[in-house]
Amino acid sequence: MSVDTQDKAIQYIQKASDTFMRYGFKSVTMSDIARELGISKKTLYQFVDNKNDLILRCVVMAMEEEQSFIISLKKQQKNAIEEMLDIAIHVNQTLKKTNPAALYDLQKYYPESWKIIEAYTHEFVFANIMENLKRGKKEGLYRQDVREDIIARLFIGKSQLLLNSTLFPYPQYKTSELHTAHIMYHMRGVASDKGLKILEQHIQNAEN
Fold first, then answer.
1. 88, 179 contact by CB (below 8 A)
2. Mean pLDDT score of the chain, rounded to an integer?
3. How does pLDDT run across 69-120, given as a tens digit for each residue?
4. I want to staple 133 with a disulfide (CB 3.0 to 4.6 A). Which of 15, 97, 148, 153 is the partner?
5. 1-5 long-range contacts, Cβ below 8 Å, gap at least 24?
6. SS3 208
């Protein structure tokens, strides 16, 4: 595949991903995607095998972009609380642009793609939370009695619970609001007195 073809493929996948996230994965057809891209279905099938293949590529690209963002954020060497808040802001911005149906569609109809997200969550996100907890304790911002492995697993478990439409029916509960509540619950639960002061200051600054 030439560089130009690779660039086109990336552009098509990004735009297809935006469309899926706005309208959901199940209801959007390949004809809809081709129309959004301004190309024929025949041209679209030169880049992907089928709809499942396209969705898988969209999910892989999204996870890679998310991972790159977090890695670049870590290089800024902020304290553990600031790092968690910056990640939370980034995730919230994504969730506000995401139709909740898109996440439910992936779980129910596209298990191969959903497994990619689950693997990312249980491996990369889990490792990131573990590292953040250990660093926060060293910085004196998290309580010393926090057991990282348990709290990291609870964090992952609660994250998955947010997608339970029986517990949190949409639109009564918006995904971005649930995520904010989840992060605040986590941060206030692990923060030391020193950490709580820093956390509350950041919250006040964000509200002003």
1. yes
2. 93
3. 999 998 898 999 999 999 999 999 999 999 888 988 999 999 999 999 999 9
4. 148
5. none
6. coil
> Residue ranges per domain, the chain?
59-207
Superfamily assignment of 59-207 in CATH? Answer: Tetracycline Repressor, domain 2 (1.10.357.10)
pTM comes to 0.90
Digit-coded pLDDT (tens) for 137-148: 999 999 999 999
Torsion of CA 107, 111, 113, 115, to 10 degrees: 90
Instruction: Output Rg (C-alpha) for the chain, integer angstroms.
Output: 19
One DSSP character per residue, 87-134 reads HHHHHHHHHHTS-HHHHHHHHHH-HHHHHHHHHHIIIIIHHHHHHHHH
